[in-house]
């Protein structure tokens, strides 16, 4: 498996996005999102793309994990681990050593245990309020 950074195209994004059963946005929306993304990570098995994740945020205090997808036939085979490792390395390299930054996400119900393995806490937690989001249409 190989991780490539910032090579995700709108077309590849849509292929991987749809592979996990998500209803895709239009390609123009994906193109805009990718242009405004801090970094993308794509996992390949040879020439075959098998997973992706992107990081958005302000580059100083908050980094947000978005669109983490691994094609079903590769789930449980280390693709997610490779993507998460590359993503966390990127965030650590983006900040001065003495800065603390938040790495955030909204998990699907099925992925909660995966993220817990990497130190993420469920919200609400004992020291803060719940994670929240609102879709604007």
Side by side, the strands of the main sheet go 1-2-3-4-5
Low-pLDDT residue spans: none
Total number of strands: 5
The total of helices stands at 4
Our Rg estimate from Cα atoms comes to 15 Å
Structural class: alpha+beta
Which sequence of SSEs, written as H and E, runs from N to C?
A: EHHEEEHEH
Strand content: 15-25%
Helix content: 25-40%
Distance between the termini: 38 Å
Mean pLDDT across the residues is: 93
Question: Largest sheet, if any?
Answer: 5 strands, mixed
Q: Shape, please?
A: globular
Walk me through this protein's architecture.
- There is one protein chain.
- This protein is of the alpha+beta class.
- Helices cover 29% and strands 24% of the residues.
- The protein contains four helices and five strands; from the N terminus they run E-H-H-E-E-E-H-E-H.
- It has helices spanning 10-19, 27-35, 79-94, 112-116, and strands at 2-5, 39-45, 48-57, 62-70, 102-104.
- Strands 1-2-3-4-5 form a five-stranded mixed β-sheet.
- The protein is globular.
- The termini are far apart.
């Amino acid at each position: 498996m190989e991780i490539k950074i910032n090579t995700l195209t709108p077309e590849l994004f849509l292929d991987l996005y749809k592979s996990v059963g998500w209803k895709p946005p239009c390609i123009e929306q994906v193109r805009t999102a990718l242009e405004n993304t801090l970094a993308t990570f794509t996992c390949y098995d040879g020439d075959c793309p098998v997973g992706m994740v992107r990081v958005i945020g302000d580059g100083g205090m908050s980094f947000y994990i978005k669109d983490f997808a691994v094609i079903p036939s590769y789930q449980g085979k280390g693709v997610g681990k490779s993507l998460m490792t590359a993503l966390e390395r990127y965030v650590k390299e983006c900040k001065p050593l003495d800065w603390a930054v938040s790495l955030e996400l909204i998990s699907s119900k099925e992925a909660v245990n995966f993220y817990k393995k990497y130190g993420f806490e469920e919200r609400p937690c004992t020291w803060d309020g719940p994670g929240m989001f609102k879709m604007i249409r």
